[in-house]
Predict the structure of C2H2-type domain-containing protein.
Amino acid sequence: MVTMERDTETVHEAYSFVCLHCGHGWEEEYEIRHTTDLAGHRRADYFAHGRRVPSPLTRADCPDCNRGPIRILRPGRVNAARSFPP
Ligand SMILES: [Zn+2]
């Protein structure tokens, strides 16, 4: 039996985004799978809602106005002033 990935670590991280064009703010939670292949290279794959997505760190579009630019905040800052929906 051959194992292609010798090490997998899954973490969950929530990122907060704000659009500098229209002011739209939102939060997205990602499942991030850190793997190390047999050559020792580290990689991170991002999943949201069960689908693989590009890294949020490279995201450049706003779901509201489709423009941007997008600024990434630390989790919780966008919603700090209002109660989080259940
Ligand atoms: Zn926008």
About this structure: The chain has one domain: 5-73. The pocket of zinc ion is lined by residues 19, 21-22, 24, 62, 64-65, 67 (CB under 6 Å). Residues 5-73 form one domain.
